[in-house]
């Protein structure tokens, strides 16, 4: 193989930035679709498009090559982290935090096998799962991707998932039909960063850190995991993507891993001295495959040059290439295998979201429910008149969480994006009917007032909005959304007993809701088979779920609640037989709630929960999407999609609405090309022409715009940008600042 072809085996671009023609020209060894990438630029693409594109990549990578270069098929990796959930119609299993509550390795093995089959149906070969993080601070936005805070539980569950996905190492079926390559991630320390900050630093005695966060890896390696993904975080200040002692000496030397080490999304670019397109350091540290979503051409060129100039020894290049080839050999794709659609499971659409797979998911949902409180109302009585309230009750995107169809999940997704799925409400309605009772859906709880028959009991479904990665990072554990609390209190005031069903990616401080409800169920993020919740509520399945994370008593989060701040210990969970205990009201004070300033309107790639973005009357959930001449698209500033590009059609405008604190607006922004016509901003008073300010900013990188009443006349709860001509600018933060209320506006 030429150096160019060898290097191409180590470069992994995202499908959003390549075409089959690029694959034909460069012969990449592997490709991926990130959470927001779908075939042909459609992140909601139907299953058939996935298979069609997989065939096109296969054809391109197996086209004959000049001067005897060996033809090596490309393989495609995806984040099937709770089923093949990128794809409409696939079975969406509970996220790992719920699977941890099942404490059931055999169930998880079956989930892995079902997931592998559904991945094969769409023609893909490799999944970036399981996450075997040991999450130790629930403020981390990826807590729900962790099975447990206890490495002794993560270890068997991670190994079981790998075996389900890949088959049992050493057996005939290993990596054969119905099996895909798995990835143990993120090595290591992802769940141990200080303050739970995603991609942050893990600090402490290395041996002690490894005893917690690297503990699940020997079993994963023993299960024959095909790949390990390097973690974004640093260990005592050294980024894992450039950490030779840990990525080579430890992982290869001591743990004996012989498979492929794949980088995370431009993770190499975070290594000191590196950029996304130039980073020999990572290969020299032990990375084999660079996940380089956009800068693949430049990185390919720099790596080739670094091999040729001796920066990268040929032996190191060959070693990495050999690992990729061995993985492909084990997958059987070097032995003249046929294109994806011609493989045994390719295009077998009846297997995608099959009744058998959905039954496994429903079993997992039921086994993951954890009853935290039950003042004698569960199981529900047959024949009961039930009212189901909460906007989360009939909301499949919300019950699925992040990494579902899109990277962040939620947003503009609807049930239509999850064909075959059942909402929590749908399961309750069916169970009530079967038990000879009735159920009505009252999202805002108002139907009860209107309906003649007062319900015997109300089920209030509420919880976190979907998020993924750093977007879900929080500064404390206070659950702030008060929709569920208000509903629980309203029913209580009318003497109607209530059951709270709480959707969350982590334990949170919910003392107020626990006090207000007669029963409280931690439901986690159940996925497409919401009927599994009703199976427990109606007693069809015994509540065997037990917490795999301790539950906080105070709202601050971090280590504080761990030292005596635990409300429920890991392993806690009530059965039905538990004696009815008069629960003592929990303390409802939480300093974080009273200190809320609502300062950040947009930060870390996410709008604050009280803030909306609209293009005239078109809502732009999470500041993404388009409408009325506005397009809001995710872009990377400091991290994946932590900023937005706002594109205006002629005459278009975008408004941000949020808490009216009367404070100044500070906006981190960037202008690549000056406006072609007038741009104005309004905050409730007069429209101010900011064309000159934006023009001066052109090409000067990220800057800060300060908008105060000095130029706006007044600053309230609404900020509107309007452009007469086509224009685009980028935004990474919008914050309010009381102290700057009267300073001059600046750009
Ligand atoms: C993300 C995640 C990683 C995922 C990868 C590809 O940033 O950190 O878990 O596998 O990118 O989507």
UniProtKB/TrEMBL annotation:
Residues 627-729 form the ExoP galactose-binding-like domain. Signal peptide: none annotated. SUPFAM superfamilies: (Trans)glycosidases, Beta-D-glucan exohydrolase, C-terminal domain. GO terms for biological process: glucan catabolic process. It comes from the Bacteria. Keywords: Hydrolase. The keyword Disulfide bond does not apply. Residues 370-575 form the Glycoside hydrolase family 3 C-terminal domain. Pfam families: Exop_C, Glyco_hydro_3, Glyco_hydro_3_C. Residues 3-326 form the Glycoside hydrolase family 3 N-terminal domain. The keyword Nucleus does not apply. This is 1,4-beta-D-glucan glucohydrolase. It comes from Erythrobacter neustonensis. The lineage of its organism: Bacteria, Pseudomonadati, Pseudomonadota, Alphaproteobacteria, Sphingomonadales.
